[in-house]
C-alpha cells in the first residue's frame, strides 16, 4: 500500500511531461532503454577501458623519459648517444633549453582522459606540472616541463598516448543509436497507423458512416483487433438489417389474420337476437387468428430479444442436448439414434443455445420422419449433428433458408425465423451452422462451437 501511494505521487507530476499519444509513448519506451544502454556503454569505454589504457600509456612514456634524463645526469659525457638512442628506440625527442625557449604558450586540451593522465604522470615522477601541445605536429605531441633550472622539451608520437580517436567511438555510438531509434520509429509509426485506422473506423461506424471492413495488417495482435472489429461491424450491420426486416415483416404477416378478424366482425349482425351456436364457428376462427398472431409476435420477440442479456456460464452440453431430445420426442418426434457422451462442458448462454438447438430439432421433427442426434468434441471444437430422413434441401437453396421469413421447406407454416435465430445465436457464440447431406437421406445440420482448452 505504501509503495502504491508513493508510485501515485510520482506518477501524477510525470504525466505533465509524458507524451499523450500512443506514438509518443511508444517512442519514449524505445528511447529510454536505448539512451541508458548508450550511457552504460560510454561509461564502460570512457570510464574504464579508455582511462585504464590512457594511464598506462602515459606512465610508460613518462617512465622512459625519466630513465633517459637520469641516464644523461649519470653519464653526461654520453648525453648525445643517450638522447639518440631514446629517439631511435623509444621515439622520444628530448631537448634541453632555457626557460625562455618555451614554445608552448597556451595548452590545448583533447577529447578524452589522455591530457589529464599525462599531466598526472609528469606530476608523480617529476613533481611539477607541464605544458602540453597536443597538436604540435600532425603526428607528434609536445610537452614542456621545468627541470633543474632549465626547460625540458619532449616530442612523442601521438600513437604512443592515444589508443584511437574518441570522437569515432562517440560518432559510432550516437550514429547507431539514431539509426536504431529511427528504424524503431518507422515500425512504431506503422503499428500506430493501423491502430489509428481502427479507431477512426470505430468512430465513423459509431456515427452511422460505414466505410467497409478494415484491411488487417501490422502485428498479430493488431490484426486480431482489426478482424474482431470487422466481425463486430458485420454482426451489427446484420443485426440492424434483420431487425429492420422483422419490423417490415410484422406488418406483412399480421395483415392477413387482422383482415380475417375484421371480416369476421363485419359479418356479425348488428341487430336482432343472435344465437350463440350460430356464432361459435366465427368465434373459433377468430380465436385461431388470434393464436396465429400471438405465435407470430412471440417468434418476432424471440428473434428481436436475441441472447445479449444472458450471461455465459459453464454448461453441461450433454444434459442440455438430452433434454432437447426428450422434449422433441414428447412433441411427437421419432429419434432413432442418440450418441451423446457424458461430461462435455462449454461456456455458453444456456437459454439461447437451448432455443437454437430446439429450433433445429423442431425443423428436423417437422420435415423428417425420423431423426438422430450426435455430440462429440475434437480438440478445441464441439460438434452437434442433427440428421433427418426427410426430403432434404438442394445445395443451391441451403444458404437461402437462413434468410429471414424463408420457407423453402414450405409444406409447414411458420414465421421463417427458426434457422435465422439459430444461426444468429451460434455466431454470437463464435460458432457456425452448416447444412449438409445426411447419411439417412435427408438433411444434416452441423453445429460447430469453439471452446478454449
Automatic annotation (TrEMBL):
It is a multi-pass membrane protein. It is found in: Cell inner membrane. It holds the Pfam family HisKA. Residues 189-241 form the HAMP domain. GO terms for molecular function: ATP binding. Its main location: membrane. The chain crosses the membrane at residues 21-46, 166-188. It comes from Candidatus Kirkpatrickella diaphorinae. This is histidine kinase. SMART domains: HAMP, HATPase_c, HisKA. It catalyses: ATP + protein L-histidine = ADP + protein N-phospho-L-histidine.
Amino acid at each position: 500500500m505504501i509503495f502504491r501511494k508513493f508510485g501515485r505521487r510520482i506518477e501524477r507530476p510525470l504525466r505533465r511531461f509524458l507524451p499523450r499519444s500512443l506514438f509518443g509513448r511508444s517512442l519514449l519506451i524505445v528511447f529510454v532503454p536505448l539512451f541508458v544502454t548508450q550511457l552504460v556503454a560510454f561509461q564502460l569505454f570512457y570510464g574504464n577501458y579508455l582511462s585504464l589504457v590512457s594511464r598506462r600509456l602515459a606512465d610508460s612514456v613518462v617512465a622512459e623519459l625519466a630513465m633517459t634524463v637520469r641516464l644523461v645526469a649519470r653519464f653526461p659525457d654520453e648525453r648525445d648517444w643517450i638522447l639518440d638512442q631514446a629517439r631511435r628506440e623509444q621515439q622520444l625527442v628530448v631537448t634541453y633549453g632555457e626557460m625562455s625557449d618555451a614554445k608552448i604558450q597556451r595548452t590545448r586540451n583533447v577529447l578524452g582522459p589522455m591530457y589529464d593522465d599525462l599531466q598526472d604522470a609528469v606530476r608523480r615522477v617529476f613533481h611539477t606540472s607541464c605544458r602540453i601541445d597536443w597538436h604540435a605536429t600532425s603526428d607528434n605531441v609536445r610537452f614542456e616541463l621545468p627541470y633543474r633550472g632549465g626547460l625540458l622539451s619532449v616530442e612523442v608520437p601521438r600513437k604512443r598516448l592515444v589508443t584511437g580517436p574518441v570522437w569515432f567511438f562517440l560518432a559510432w555510438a550516437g550514429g547507431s543509436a539514431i539509426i536504431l531509434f529511427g528504424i524503431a520509429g518507422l515500425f512504431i509509426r506503422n503499428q500506430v497507423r493501423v491502430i489509428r485506422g481502427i479507431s477512426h473506423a470505430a468512430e465513423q461506424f459509431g456515427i452511422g458512416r460505414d466505410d467497409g471492413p478494415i484491411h488487417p495488417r501490422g502485428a498479430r495482435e493488431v490484426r486480431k483487433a482489426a478482424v474482431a472489429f470487422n466481425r463486430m461491424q458485420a454482426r451489427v450491420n446484420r443485426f440492424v438489417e434483420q431487425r429492420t426486416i422483422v419490423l417490415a415483416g410484422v406488418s406483412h404477416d399480421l395483415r392477413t389474420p387482422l383482415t380475417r378478424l375484421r371480416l369476421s366482425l363485419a359479418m356479425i349482425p348488428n341487430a336482432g337476437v343472435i344465437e350463440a351456436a350460430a356464432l361459435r364457428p366465427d368465434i373459433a376462427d377468430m380465436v385461431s387468428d388470434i393464436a396465429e398472431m400471438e405465435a407470430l409476435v412471440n417468434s418476432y420477440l424471440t428473434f428481436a430479444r436475441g441472447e445479449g442479456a444472458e450471461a455465459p456460464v459453464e454448461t453441461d452440453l450433454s444434459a442440455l442436448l438430452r433434454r432437447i431430445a426428450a422434449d422433441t420426442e414428447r412433441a411427437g418426434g421419432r429419434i432413432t439414434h442418440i450418441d451423446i457422451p457424458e461430461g462435455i462442458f462449454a461456456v455458453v448462454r444456456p437459454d439461447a443455445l437451448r432455443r437454437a438447438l430446439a429450433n433445429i430439432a423442431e425443423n428436423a421433427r417437422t420435415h423428417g420422419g425420423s431423426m438422430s442426434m450426435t455430440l462429440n468434441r475434437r480438440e478445441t471444437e464441439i460438434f452437434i449433428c442433427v440428421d433427418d430422413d426427410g426430403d432434404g434441401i438442394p445445395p443451391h437453396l441451403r444458404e437461402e433458408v437462413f434468410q429471414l421469413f424463408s420457407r423453402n421447406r414450405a409444406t409447414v407454416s411458420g414465421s421463417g425465423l427458426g434457422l435465422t435465430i439459430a444461426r444468429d445465436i451460434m455466431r454470437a457464440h463464435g460458432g457456425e451452422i452448416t447444412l449438409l447431406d445426411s447419411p439417412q437421406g435427408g438433411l444434416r445440420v452441423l453445429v460447430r462451437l469453439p471452446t478454449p482448452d
